[in-house]
Amino acid sequence: IFGMCNNFAYSVMLGAAQDILKRNSESNTPDANSTEHCVSLLKYMIPFGTVYFMQYFIKQGLIELVVFDCAHGFHTTPSSQYRWYQVFYHIGVFLSRSSINLVKLNFVCISLLAVVQTATTIVVFFTAIYAYIPHFAIICSIMFFVGIVGGANYANTFYHIHRKVDPTIREFALSTVTFADTIGILAAAVAAIPVHNWICAMKWNTVS
Q: Sorted alphabetically, which InterPro entries does this protein's record hold (predicted)?
């Protein structure tokens, strides 16, 4: 239900963007070609969607498999550890999204955040399989970093669009690029299911 409400809001925004493009078309402006605009926005959408895919792949398919015993987990239970992972992740998101007035990234740095988030996902992926990270606190730090990267990518992408994109298509650009995170989150949810099951089966086979 929440997902449907969220997508409905995106649909409303896109409908408004299409109305803007229609008005541009009626006035014979050169900014009426939505296909060309979408292609030009791929430079924002691909890094944006990649960051969201990676961070939600971690959250939905990997991080719950990273569990520590009492000696290495501050005497917390596995369910409590998972909750703390989420807390540190959202603290990172909050801080980075709130710091756009302090730290502004250029387009190259925004794109590199996708590479950084991918590298972090690889680290967590192999941690879920081989459990080579020795302590719960390190994973909390990694989740905090995942939130920092995701929030920084979100805030700086839309700030960059607001500042750099032609004002005549700015509303269209903002509403269109927003779909990249939805696609990334959906793809992460779909990919997380078989990967999660595969890792669990691998561990079971190792034990047996």
A: Battenin_disease_Cln3, MFS_trans_sf
Structure token pair of residue 94: 């909050």
Q: Which of 144, 118, 125, 147 is nearest to 47 (CA)?
A: 118
Q: Which residues of 72-91 are buried (b: 16+ CB within 10 A; e: fewer)?
A: ebeeeeeeebbebbeebbeb
Average pLDDT over the chain, rounded to whole?
A: 83
The two three-digit tokens of residue 72, written as one number: 């290495």
What does the alpha-carbon distance between residue 194 and residue 32 come to, in Å, rounded to a whole number? 42
Which tens digits make up the pLDDT trace of 16-37?
555 555 555 454 444 446 777 7
